[in-house]
Amino acid sequence: MTRIAIWFFSGVTVLTVLAMALLLLMQSLPVWQHEGFSFATGAKWFYRQQEFGAASMIYGTLVVSIGALVLATPVGIGAAIFTAEFLPARFRLMVKLTIELLAGVPSVVYGLLGILMLRNWIYELLAPFDPLSGDTLFTAAVLLALMILPTIMTLSDDALRSVPATQRHAARGLGLNGTEVVLHVSLPQASRGLFAAVLLGLGRAMGETIAVFLVIGRQDNQWPQSLFSLQPLIESGQTLTSKLGSSETNIAYGNPLHWGAMVGLGVILLVIVTLITWFGAYLQRSDHAS
Amino acid sequence: MRIHHIIVAGMLMASPLEAGTLKINGSTTVNLPVAEASEILRAEMKMDIQIDTQGGSSGGISMLGEGLVQLGMASKHISDDDRAKFPKCDYKEIHIGEDAVAMIVSADVWDGGVKALSKAELKGIYEGAIKNWKDVGGPDRRIAFFNKEPGRGTWEVFVHWIYGNPKLAPQVSFPEVGGNEETRNKVASTKGALSQLSSSWADGKTVFALGLKSETGEVIQATSETIATHKYPMSRPLFLLSNGAPAGEAKLLVDFVLSGRGQALVKKHGYLTLAELK
């Protein structure tokens, strides 16, 4: 009985995912026929000229998400080390609950706060570099960092707490001090969980729409002169999600090619997130084997 | 700040009528008087109304076309393309008032001496030939142009004036803004900013409406008179949209907006009423 239930529910899950992917692929077929692989590599998006290239948006998504991760990971894991390793138990729950509340705030609220406060603050902060406005990839990255910080922090805390106390006691017994216990026992043993926390944060950052939509400027065709240039950080840009959230989806409706291009952006996002998840699973496995 | 102005109907439980929810979506410009009318109807008639501004005018047109809402709101005419996209929808435009699109600038540009722009100057800015305010008599500062999203009624009025037809407008890549609140907020807080905005939203304190220079050099401001006579070139009609003649709850709301009290709301939000247009 249990076995039948397992097969049934697993089957339903797998079929749903496959059907969804198939539906997206079928709907985006016109754009792949029209553009070929240059839909993913082309940097120009001019829908009225029927030119569809998603590369600038892929670039925007990657820069903003990785930027958010760079900002949020050290703070998130640092805070988790503090709550899990140093804070007395009763304070730990209090701090953790407060931070988890932040994870439940709807993203449109973050977006509005972003417009009202963060955007202007960053506009003034970046004044020496003369940005055209406060809508920049950097603004979006900082806002996303704030949004994924609770996720990273609370999951890292769980990972660290799952390291058995006996391990710490043994390490202390061997003469390691508090810092050494964290560095040489807790962190290595929790590394898989910490990595999962960061990956989940990355997943949220990539899929986030409304908050990014409100502060990124939504400027098309912002392909950088050099992939390693920092200049795009202080300019407006576009992510896959901010494009999907724009009114262009209304214009695209009814035009198979344009609609296919919009759905195609969703396919690309799905592929990127899937690859990252697989990569994470692969790293976790090899970590386990050593 | 009301980016998503959703009135959640709390009266649903109290209503003995199982009439269902009246759903409305579309232009943020039309939303102001219609949302206030909805609040009054909710209180007085116990009507259950959800009103939203997803995607602006084109969002209203497509959601009505798909049958997701009973009424759309638009600050532009239904185009033949829209009718072709939704052949099953018998679009009816219900004229409820008139508005103008203003070119708005931030305080530093206004104080720097830019009070009006001509069609040629706006075309140059839109096509990227003019990038600095000093080229149009202003301070030495880059122009931070926020373009209204294509599909927005405001954007269509703008390119219709400059190019004669939205389809003839070149495709440009500027930072884009959506609803009126977002536009006003971003222009107010950015130096050297310029954007298109419903003229009734240009408050003259945080953002400033430019006059438009005609070919003879005359500066035309958006006033009740110039909008009513169409002397101001970027005036536009405001519509409620329905599929066929409105019926039931939708008809109640349409009739209310067209009544004296409804038209007073149109006026209150800075638009011209139907009576003023005659």
Question: How would you portray this structure in words?
Answer:
The complex is a heterodimer of chains A (290) and B (278). Chain A is an all-alpha fold and 290 residues long. Chain A has a single domain, classed as MetI-like fold. In chain A, 75% of the residues lie in helices and 0% in strands. Chain A has twelve helices and no strands. The model of chain A has no long low-confidence stretch (mean pLDDT 91). Chain B folds into two domains: 21-95 and 238-276, D-Maltodextrin-Binding Protein, domain 2, CATH 3.40.190; 100-228, Periplasmic binding protein-like II (D-Maltodextrin-Binding Protein, domain 2, 3-Layer(aba) Sandwich). Chain B is built from eleven helices and eleven strands. In chain B, strands 1, 2, 3, 4, 5, 6, 7, 8, 9, 10 and 11 form an eleven-stranded mixed beta sheet that branches. Residues 1-18 of chain B have low confidence and may be disordered. Chains A and B meet through helix 5 and helix 11 of A and helix 2, strand 7 and helix 7 of B.
Quick structural gist:
Chain A is mainly alpha-helical and 290 residues long. Chain A has helices at residues 2-35, 38-41, 55-86, 89-103, 107-125, 137-161, 165-173, 178-207, 210-215, 240-244, 248-252, 256-289. Chain A has a single domain (2-289), classed as MetI-like (MetI-like fold, Orthogonal Bundle).
Helix run count of chain A: 12
| Series of secondary-structure elements of chain A, N-terminal to C-terminal | HHHHHHHHHHHH
What sequence of helices (H) and strands (E) makes up the elements of chain B?
A: EHEHEHEHEHEHEHEEEHEHHH
- The third-level CATH topology of the largest domain in chain B is D-Maltodextrin-Binding Protein, domain 2
Oligomer: heterodimer
Helix/strand/pairing category of chain A: mainly alpha
Please indicate the count of domains of chain A.
1
- Total domain count of chain B: 2
| Overall geometry of chain A | globular
